[in-house]
Design goal:
Shape: elongated
Number of strands: 0
Transmembrane segments: 45-62, 69-89, 101-121
Number of helices: 5
Subcellular location: Membrane
InterPro entries: DUF423
Distance between the termini: 25 Å
Radius of gyration: 16 Å
Number of domains: 1
Helix content: over 70%
Order of helices and strands: HHHHH
Pfam family, one: DUF423
Family: Belongs to the UPF0382 family.
């Protein structure tokens, strides 16, 4: 499981850097300032959670059961949160109205919050 967590963490980090560069250079010409800020928010949260998974995957302070649960929450959370932001902010390029997709953004955010909370719970349990 540790290798899987670390591998996905590196993929999330790698793609966050690529998407950040893409946003800063290519999308800067075609997105509004508000859309660009939203896109950058997706990139930031993706990178934050790549680093979070690196921590979760390398520390002995997290139980294997919690590691697996946190991993799933983060992966689905990033896909829903950051992924929906990427799609919604670039919808003008595709010409497809994806506004109904906006409901998944807060669901993804909630999954990310639960991942952090679950880490807290697991650490408290181990300390007791």
């Amino acid at each position: 499981m540790q290798t899987k967590v670390l591998s996905i963490a590196t993929i999330l980090g790698l793609t966050a850097i690529i998407l950040g560069a893409f946003g800063a250079h290519a999308l800067k010409q075609v997105l509004t300032p508000e859309q660009l800020i939203a896109f950058e928010t997706g990139v930031k949260y993706q990178m934050y959670h790549a680093l979070f998974l690196l921590f979760v995957g390398t520390t002995a302070a997290v139980s294997d059961k919690a590691r697996k649960f946190i991993f799933n929450l983060v992966v689905f959370g990033v896909v829903l949160f950051s992924g929906s932001i990427y799609v919604l902010t670039t919808k003008g390029l595709s010409g497809i109205d994806l506004k109904p997709l906006g409901i998944v953004t807060p669901i993804g955010g909630l999954l990310l919050i639960v991942a952090w909370f679950w880490l807290f719970v697991d650490l408290i349990r181990k300390k007791s």
